[in-house]
Structures are given as C-alpha cells and as structure tokens.
Amino acid sequence: MKKNSNFIFLVHQKVREKRGLLHYKKHVENYMKKLFVVQKQCRQTILAYQILDDTVCLLIEGNEIDAVSKFLQHLHGVVAADYAKIKDREGP
Questions:
Q1: How far apart are CA 59 and CA 46, in angstroms?
Q2: Is the pLDDT of residue 36 over 60?
Q3: CA distances from 45 to 12, 58, 67, 75, 92 (A)
Q4: Please, what is the Cα angle at 65 between 64 and 67, to 5 degrees?
Q5: Distance, CA of 37 to CA of 26 (rounded, Å)
Q6: Which pLDDT score, from 0 to 100, does residue 1 have?
Q7: Cβ atoms 6, 47 nearer than 8 A
Q8: What is the pLDDT of residues 40-67, one digit of tens each?
Q9: How far is CA 6 from CA 15, 24, 74, 82, 90, in A?
C-alpha cells in the first residue's frame, strides 16, 4: 500500500435512545460548530455529513485510520464535555 493513499471512511453513529444530545436545534448547532473546530485542529477532511436527532453520519477522507480515530475521539470528548456543561453535570 502506498504511503500517500487516501481512503474514505464512513462513520455512522447512533447518538441517543431518548431525548438528549441532538434532539434540540441548539445542540445540533453546537455539534456542527465543534465538528468544524475539531476538523481544523486535527486537519481532517470532511467530505459530507448528515446530522439527525438520533444519528450522525460523517464521510471523512484520510490516509491513516489512527488519525481518523483520534479525530473522532477528540470530537466526541469535546461534544460530551460541552453537553455535560450545558446540563450542569460532572464527570465523563
């Protein structure tokens, strides 16, 4: 495999069972804002995205699965911390 090969990763995530993260418009807008901030920090290319109230789908271009994985971990951590702050919760 060439070192400069690019791959496209489809990430499909179920986000919640009941009303919670991404159920309200303000949370969706916050998720999108955090998505693009983390995208710039991690230098990942997001080709397309779809955000529904219970599912997030991302189409990500990258050449290393580890880099995409770290990007997703960072995104989830930032969004979870922000949501916990909004809901006045402590802990992970």
A1: 6
A2: yes
A3: 16, 10, 11, 14, 28
A4: 70
A5: 17
A6: 47
A7: no
A8: 999 999 999 998 878 899 999 988 889 9
A9: 27, 35, 21, 32, 39
Buried b (16+ CB within 10 A) or exposed e, 3-28: eeeeeebebeeebeeeeebbeeeebb
Angle at 26 between CA 8 and CA 73, to 5 degrees: 35
pTM of the predicted structure, to 2 decimals: 0.77
* Structural tokens at position 70: 């770290």
Q: Which residues contact 72 (CB under 8 A, 6 or more apart)?
A: 11
Distance in angstroms (rounded) separating the CA atoms of residues 13 and 11: 6
Q: Find the length of the chain.
A: 92
**In the predicted model, is pLDDT for residue 92 greater than 80?**
no
**Tokens of residue 17, six digits:** 């069972």
